[in-house]
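Just curious. Invent one:
>
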Amino acid sequence: MFQKKLLLTLISTSAFMFSNLSFADSVFGSGADKSKLTAISTILSTPENYLDQSVTVQGTIVKVCKKRGCWMELASDKQYKTLRIKVRDGDMVFPMTTMGKTAYATGPLTAIPLDLEQTKRYLAYQAEEQNETFDENSVTQAITVYQLNPVGVTIAD
């Protein structure tokens, strides 16, 4: 009888401990500064207003670099828009297991102006990734790609 009571006590204590266990967020660099939170759609609508400024964005991780974990893409609060979060190789490594989780990233927004040929290659690659057809002759103007270069990232677990 004593052993049965002891076993039941251990089981209920363990269940209580595990039910209150909270997993810690994953922090990279200095972690994100959530006090500077700006919607991705706001930044992408007027990116020139945010260039080289430290901002924090939030979004669901929809892509991660498979080779080195040096970049990830966050879904915007507006459908079909994403923002690339890019670090120097090795500075931070974003694991593939973070796909689908919410990330916060803080750092400066940078612009990468592409010439017409680079634009065609970039858009062709994007179309290939989405399994869409692409006609490079339809591209007549160069674009600028924007990305956030974070000093801190927090991924909610």
